[in-house]
Structures
1.
Amino acid sequence: MDFEVIIGLEIHVEMKTKSKMFSASPVAFGAEPNTLTSPYDLAFPGTLPLPNKQAVINAIQVAHALHMKIDNELHFDRKNYFYSDLPKGYQITQNRRPIGSNGYLDIVIDNKVNRVEIERLHLEEDTAKQLHFPSYSLIDYNRVGVPLIEIVTRPCIHSSDVAAKYVETIREIVSFLEVSDGKMEEGQLRCDVNISLKKKDDKKFGTKVEVKNINSFNYIKIALEYEINRQKNELLKGHQIVQETRRYDEANKATQTMRLKTDSVDYKYFPEANIPIIKLSQDFINHAIESSNELASDKRKRYLQEYKLNDYDTSILLSNLAVARYFDECSKFSKHYKAIANWIIVDISAFLNKNAITIDKFNIKPKVLVSLIDEIETGKISNKIGREIFNYMLEKNVDIKTAKSALNITNQESDDKVIRALVNEILDNNEQSIKDYHAGKDRALGFLIGQAMKKSGGKINPSITSKIMIEELKRRK
Amino acid sequence: MNYLDLTIKEIHEALVNKQVTPLELVNEALKRAKEDKCNAFEYIMEKEALSLAKTLTEPEKDNLLWGIPFAIKDNISTKGVPTCASSDILKGYVPIYNATIIEKLLKKKAIPFAKVTLDELAMGGTGATGHLGKTTNPYDVSHERMVGGSSCGSAAVVSSAIVPFALGSDTGDSIRKPASYAGLVGFKPTWGRISRYGLFPFTPSLDSLGFFTRSVYDSALILNIVAGYDKNDFTSSREKVDDYTSDLNKPIKGIKIAVIKEILESVSDPYIQKKFQETLKIYEELGAKINYVSVNHHLLKTLFPTYYIISCAEATSNNANLDGVKFGLNLEGNTFNDSLIKTRSEGFSERIKRRFVIGSYSLMAENQNELYLRATKNRHKIVDEINKVLKDNDVIFLPASPSVAPKFDNKIDQLEDEYLIADNYMVIANFAGLPSITIPTGFVNDLPFGFNLTASAFAEKKLFNIAKALEDKLGYYNLSARTKK
């Protein structure tokens, strides 16, 4: 039997703003528990929410990147429920009027465009982090109030591939906009997936199951595939799908029942009176959009079309914002894009991996790297010498000039006249080799070039020398 | 001569002339507080007040609040001083921060003297529902009469002349009604005029901080100090803070005073009616023009149910932080839910729980349209009507209560106009966020009553001016149960 898979995703992104969504407490990952709090975060009576402007700007930027309609008014609502991770007993969110609505993201897989329709994007505040132990639980209020954006798709995704790539694209967008680091492992990007199956010709959707706790990009596809197969098998056995929330268990590579969903919870939403409606002027919205970082998708287009890089290089350069930034900075100073890409992908990456550091801690500044690359590309120094200089610079943390003089390197001679004079001097003294060359003994050419290199002290450009040598030999036939 | 029997302005003169010191004032207030028979205190800040008073030795001539002791309704956050909103749920809660209004008064070296009672969590109008029991009316020696609520303790201590002013909060009429029962000036400003940072929320869209004083001048004076934008309250207004005392004695000739017929007609007490007509004459003699206006009677009958639905609904959410985890009462349980249910069942009185049930019910998805949203829409309708009246008039003038302070066991018919309209109409000022003041205007059998004036948003200066004109003519200035005797 043929089934159609229906997937909808809800993604929560923790923003890396300086302060929390509604209080001045700092936002930081990995701080000592319960050190980043204020009376508001702990819901002390009488404290009031103060909306974070940067969080609003961030939400506008992400909404714009997702081709959404951006509301010109900010409305906040309360979502009421009791839980130990929710100090106020309600969460401030945007229920009636999300800041972003009706957008999309095109996900290309094997040249096929899959349009993911995005229903809404709204601002809200995070809950506290809980650590559960057999006889007690601990609460860390550092996370409470951290600004979140929630991005909700329509149930319009039909494969785990598209779903997984969609989540990766969202991560790419928020990290390139510097709204979030988007690390799933650290809970900065969390995704809840709703999955249902229906027979191909059925009009009605099947019973949906929510899958939570997917903590890594690597598991999205695996978890979804598992759940799709599970539901398929159930249906083939003639069983009903139970409406429930399942969690993904990494160890067993399987989804497991977390709780059954009976009636949906009534959150008794109502408007937040402590934050009156805030008008967002067109200027404010435009300015937020204009001040956005360049998206990875725009960079990709530029690398492929303008810089003529291949898919592989492009994807490596765009795997990380800092790497892309380094490359962009380099490309401001030189048009040897392919060479720059190679250096970053091969030499720099190797160094970073060996020393377990990231590119923002890399000592050689883009401008310096580019001048080294340019010297190689214009033949002033050889590739081999270039790498020697590079290694010396890294080892001793010095500039090119110092490295060169320390390594006793002067630039290669590439001047035609100088090399031709030298070549002729060698030929004048090696009549026999000229004869051998014309008699078809190839070794003679190598010998002659070797003589010229030796005479110059290794400073002439070998490829230019070889070219001139052949020309001069032809003239002496 | 006891200086606590004077108004702020008069005490200030005595302080400047070194006839009395802040320490003497605090000691006298302590003496009076300990003799209190009205059950007005949650916590007397004896140590704190004395130690602050001792530091105040050089009077500040231009600072009228220097060395003046005052009382604080116990739903206002005071750093290091227990604050429980007269509810067991907040037993043992000691805030770690001061409300903005407290900070501003401390900066002026006014002396916080006591935390005083309220109806539990400010939800109530009788002053009988706090966890310490009834707070009674100082004018009634038998203590059978209410002083009104929810700011019952604040009204009682100013009326008993224990302090010359007290902070209160007003969500429906919680300052202005007790002011009527206690013979005081009770004022709430425009919504947003005073920062609410540190006021325990009941219904944020209706809540206002305000105060009880014994003269209109004192009220205007305090507003000068506590009004203004506050970065900690996103709803506080950036509207310029005026000198609210500067126009107090301006002639009110040409002022237009609206009387809403349907509300006045719902008051049955003939003496209050007569007195109201007399005050209208006084206003006319001062050159004011009286306009009787009409507001739909059915709409007025919806005031109370509208208020009740909105306030109960928002209160359930505003008090959801009281879960026993972070502060206040905590009863242990095996799980979070277990502990939550035990704590909240024990910590809130039945009355509060009833309000929460009504509030939750009206917010439920299936009821929200019929109840909560309908109430908020009706609120807008009422606000439109009132703003129409104020477009053509400077103030709305009406009796603040249909009677003097009732006895606690007084039976009222909650479906009568007198209750639905006359006893509850002042919520109009909360619905529309308008400045509103009650001033004493007469006595029935030695029990005071007052009338209320409500003006357009941010028209506080004009409001005080019109109130002061009447205060001057009637001579009901600096009343207290103590000086009367």
2.
Amino acid sequence: MVKSKSAYSTPSKLGKLDTHIFVIWVDNEAGVLARVVGLFSGRGYNIESLAVAEVDHKKNLSRVTIVTTGTPQVIEQITLQLKKLVPVHKVANFKKEDKKVIFKEMALLKIAGNQGKIKKALNACKKYNPVILDETKKSAVIQITALRREIDSVTKNLKPLGLVSTSRTGAVAMTRGAEIFN
Amino acid sequence: MGKLYSGAEIVFKSLEDQKVEFIFGYPGGAVLPIYDELKNHPSIKHILVRHEQGAGHAAEGYARSSGKPGVVLVTSGPGATNVVTALTDAYMDSVPLVCISGQVPTHLIGTDAFQECDTTGITRPCTKHNWLVKDINDLPRIMHEAFEVATTGRPGPVLVDIPKDVQFAKAKYFKPKKEKKLNGKVQNKFNQKEIDQLIDLMSKASKPVFYTGGGVINSGPKASELLRELVSLTGFPITSTLQGLGAYPGDDNQFLGMLGMHGTYEANNAMHDCDLLINIGARFDDRITGKIDEFSPKSKKVHIDIDPSSINKIIKVDLSIVGDVAEVISATSKTLKKKNLNIEKSNKQKISKWWQQIQKWRTKQSLNFINSNTIIKPQHAVQRLYELTKDQDTYITTEVGQHQMWAAQHYKFNKPNRWMTSGGLGTMGYGLPAAVGVQVAHPKKLVIDIAGEASILMTMQEISTAIQYNLPIKIFILNNQYMGMVRQWQELLHEKNYSESYSEALPDFVKLAEAYGCVGIRAKSPNELDGKIEEMINIDKPVIFDCHVDQDENCFPMIPSGKPHNQMLLGPKDQEENKITGKGKALV
């Protein structure tokens, strides 16, 4: 065996990685997003997508939704570390596969091409609540809401149909039924 | 309408209301209004350091030896960046610090103004929380909240960045609220069921061990008393981390010594072979666990900690109790007594076997070294220092390296808050300024910084602070002319390629001491050591003691990297014996 020259131990085997969605309620104050994001980058956690906006103006609360992957231990650490941040009020986290939770992303897709192409493009989007936000003879801006992988596949299919620009949000999440995150 | 106060006045009024007696700082352009206000507040004494890092470490020494938060005052830009090392150090070792920094006026923020830096941005990852005060009306609330965050839960540093115009602006002041909830950040929610589970595990265990850490110290002197009671009630062996030393008497028979990379043979083997491991206020640091996969493989593990994020972070545990250590121990002892479960008696047979095993490990005498008549062995120097100072209430700080480990191994602590060392961050240059802070908190006590010649040069300038305030700290340098720990690793792991670890061009420490206006003492041979140590103790001035020690000495025992606890590398004596039997070679 080769002798280790490191003052640190060698890494042990990584566990199974799961995708989780974190919903974090924070005070809407200067630097709060940097604290949340800095915690992820500083501790080597990964951010797949991020969505944040104020949800309660009176209470000055913002809701951050972060999609991340990690081993069960890492996911637990992220939860506990987030809870330690002073402006963080509440942290919820659930698996991507969780059936009790709705999970959506929005995308704006700009198609440049003739009417035929635009029509085909619209057709390709029809399962994802397409809304035409802007239309000219040679272009259209289509808004869709869907899951991440659905948007991935739509954009792939739209490439030959004149997709010239894509703008996507991070995922947002909401529980089904009357219950709310706790 | 209430009276209006300037931002600078509000800073001092809140410091007064928080019962702050000392601040460690260094003035500069962006904090001048606060320094101007200092004269009006005689109950607060300012200690002028020589470098802002020194202010931070001095405040750490003050905080750790007194149990009160340390307060630091620095200017913007370089003042703030210089204190970052100390903030990070305090963050890693859970030391409560409140750092107040000046900032350029609000309208200049973001313009790359003179001595401007993004202080809150830079210190965000090394503080529990920080604030940039943009509105004077927020200042009283933020000041009080800063103390609250720093001192509650798992303690740590915070920083309040105050732009110069806010220091001049005026607002109303209000006193801190007596009871304030910090949106659930303070965790003390354990229940009796968890205590009962712990006691159940304790009564079933036949090879139990307590593994205690800095959390016991941070929980206050009461926690140490309660720990002693619990340990004697159970009859279990106890080992401690570097930061936990002093919580349990170092010379007690139930104490196995420090564990970890340079811990004792008996402590590490007990950790490896135990069937119940009770972690109280420690965090399974990588210097403690060694190889994670083979860490204490046969044991049920219990973790008592105030910080929920410490639990299951590195080692999965079977029972976790989140709460203040003192309260958890107290609840445990109470329940033990109430149930009249004298574990020591009921478990005596099982545990006595365990103790026999521990005695066997003890016969290895893993801290032994081969002493010399001609050259001072560093371990011998620490032992003599201990013997000659143990009769008085002595406070020890250290720098980082071999000397730090020898101090931890050979100096026995009987009380909490007597041992200040940089463990998590491992900051060379910590010990001298920390000693300044300790001496400020305890002016009549003997304060010794056990140092190395390389570390001490990193913050040497603070000896000037000690002179200015008549702080008779003793700097005891184990001078081996090497960055000893670096040299040791190079010897063991890098084929003796001593790359850049020799301390070239060292100053004459005795002359240096004289230049600063303190006393220099040099010891070169073992027969003069005792006399010179006594001389040092009796001088009521700062002393730099240049103790020339064996250059080749290594710090043993040690767990080589990537090895579990039961594969320790023992000292030269044992290695020699093992050579004959051919056993120990595999370990090297």
